[in-house]
Task: structure prediction
Amino acid sequence: MSKAEPLVLIVSGPSGSGKSTLVQKILKLPGTMLSVSCTTRPPRKTETAGKWYNFISEVEFQQMVARGEFLEYAQVFGKNWYGTPRKSLDEALAQKKDLVLEIDVQGALQAKQKLPGAVALFVLPPSREDLERRIRERGLDSEDEIRRRLERARQEILNYNAYDFAVINDDLERAGREVQAIALGSRCRVEHREERIHEILKSFGG
Result:
């Protein structure tokens, strides 16, 4: 990891796996901040612009793509675009905080390629049946959409070995402790502590 990069935690998983809830658990740790994504989808009733997403037009989104302003971006379910602004890295570095990215699997694979020092965490539902129940309880999708989401989840889970950690979200309290432990443990990786280790060595005379 470059000294000019903050610790980046990529949290990803199928739609409905509960990754947003687990990201909130990570953000309870001091010294963490969320990367606010851009999206072309309209906000839901419970969403406030700038908290989890910046809601922009497709024209604005494509202009940002053309200017190279995204770390990663993807079109989800053939409809809306989502992207992670590069400026989030600069903000995290300036604030000396760990940066948490909550993104879909397609975006996570892009981000991991561009930031090989990032820690990628995969959130899984305990079963197909459980995921279907969660999606249905949200009441947002048609039968065709539910089928597409479940098939997409199957395809996404096939990418599990591209991640560093996997958390099975069958018990929220335990899964929450696991994601926090991963975040804390990642801070102790040698490459992340290298600058501090060199300072300690200097105190011994080099």
User: Anything to note?
Assistant: The radius of gyration is 18 Å.
